[in-house]
Write a structure and sequence with these properties.
By secondary structure, the chain is mainly alpha-helical. About 60% of the residues lie in helices and about 0% in strands.
């Protein structure tokens, strides 16, 4: 799938590799990194500091945590978002825990991020997921798609990933990875919009 086509408003001050490489990033539902994208993330964070020097600190931490999640560095992402007392801090914390995998804690943090729903984001993640899964026949995916039309609770994706842990169905796992990437892209852009709209006083 061509992830960037879903996100026409990719921030111009970011390294374009971030979204260009998204279809190939986060290639596991759970687990940490191999360090191969550390330099890319560090470059993006430097650019973020230079071009948006007055971003509110909590939102900056969320953006940095998101970039480290893109690179599969769960430990650094956790350190950045775990003490952010906002809905977006809780949301990124929830994503990080799902990928550990710590599904119980992931759902706890999604509940703490109660105002962040798949349908209330700038790009409706539910609509993107429905489109992505429209042709999929796997019963777990169709059940998930049906559930999403009735309830936009992100915990449903946590449950789906947990149920799929022992599966070797490549079509199922590929679809879940695409949803994981879509979730990252939508949540990142939403956090970015909040950050640029709410600069810290200076």
């Amino acid at each position: 799938m061509s992830i960037p086509n879903f996100f026409p408003a990719v921030p111009t001050c970011l390294n374009p590799q971030i979204f260009a490489e998204l279809p190939d990033r986060m290639g596991k539902l759970t687990g940490s990194h191999d360090g191969s994208r550390t330099k890319t993330v560090q470059t993006c964070i430097t650019s973020l500091h230079e071009k948006l020097p007055h971003v509110e600190p909590h939102l900056r931490s969320c953006l940095e945590a998101a970039l480290w999640l893109w690179a599969d560095d769960l430990e650094t992402a956790h350190r950045l978002c775990q003490d952010v007392p906002t809905l977006y801090g809780a949301a990124w914390h929830a994503v990080m825990h799902r990928r550990e995998p710590d599904f119980f804690n992931s759902k706890y943090w999604w509940r703490r991020a109660g105002g962040v729903k798949w349908t209330t984001l700038q790009y409706s993640l539910r609509d993107l997921v429905n489109k992505r899964l429209a042709s999929k026949k796997h019963p777990l995916l169709q059940s998930f798609r049906a559930a999403c039309t009735q309830n936009d609770d992100p915990c449903k994706f946590v449950d789906l990933v947990e149920r799929s842990q022992q599966s070797d169905d490549t079509d199922l796992l590929s679809a879940l990875l695409d949803i994981q990437r879509l979730e990252w892209g939508v949540l990142f852009l939403e956090t970015w919009e909040r950050a640029t709209a709410s600069p810290a006083p200076h």
